Description:
Layout: H1 3-12, E1 15-17, H2 19-33, H3 67-70, E2 73-74, E3 77-83, E4 86-87, H4 94-97, E5 100-101, H5 102-114, E6 120-127, E7 129-131, H6 135-144, E8 151-160, H7 162-167, E9 172-175, E10 180-182, H8 194-199, H9 224-249, H10 253-259, E11 265-267, H11 268-274, E12 279-280, H12 283-290, H13 305-322
Parallel strand pairs: 3-6, 4-5, 6-8, 8-9, 8-10, 9-12
Antiparallel strand pairs: 1-7, 2-3, 10-11
Helix pairs in contact: 1-2, 5-6, 6-9, 9-10
Amino acid sequence: MKLDQVVRYLASKPWAMEPLALAALVDVVAHRSVGDATPMPEGVEPAIGGTAWYLDIGAAGIPHQSAGAVARRAGRVGVLPIRGTILNRLSGMEAMSGGTSFETLTKSFVGMRNASDVKAIVLDIDSPGGSVDGLPEMATLIHESRGSKPIVAQVNVCAASSAYWLAAQADEIAVTPSGDVGSIGVVTVHQDMSAALEKMGIKHTVIASTPFKAEGNPFGPLEEEALASIQADVATFDTMFHDAVAQGRGVKASAVRAEYGQGRMVLADAAVKRGMADRVATMEQTLNRFGVSMLGGSRAAQAPPSTRMAARSFLRRVRLNAQ
């Protein structure tokens, strides 16, 4: 996909994404599209970027797993990474996003949900969010899978925008102590490339067969009618976003709008106090409650009796909800 086409794609889509991450992605694409081939600094990517009911599922630690294998399975726990920019399909964006596709997520999640030897699913989330394309469908899949087996969203360390939309559909949300969640809302970008192109001696003449076919194109200022249309799309997805989080968290949409950051990210402790998450815990602590470890070996013996009691209580609740 040509870079100017990627810019148009970015400009035409609403994004459920942390604004600074989206700005970084757009800036890189825009600079490349006008011939700026300055490489990114080494190690910098264009896109920036537990719960006590686990012991009774019979998880068994596997001491000699490699780090890559642990990212997929830890004992009888399925660990599903959701990392980087989230897109419906990566295709031409893959090299720039280094992210995750809903297409891949859906296949992996359904496989874990249907596997008889997977007794729980942990969504390992570290993402600034991404496109709204495919997002409501993936969120619905997670929400409707509740009751089949415990599903926990482990924020490790960031669940922004669409990543939080997904996290809210799990049975519970855990946030690592240094983590944050939120950035609820939808944003889009119009990139006016006309000045940059003029400096290069390039002038585009846009020819369209219908009145709105070329509206919002990057070769000139944004027209008022195009702006109104884009704002309407953003508002539609914004309502879907708040309603989905409200359903997932079991609160009213008005509470999400008032208490869930209003577009800001919220740190772990504050997120729990506001009801945006259920507890502060690291990935290791979350897996320990399942009786397994990222480092290898079983942690069941370390869990206090209160943890085992909470595990039994939760599992009974999941079974009742599934009936």
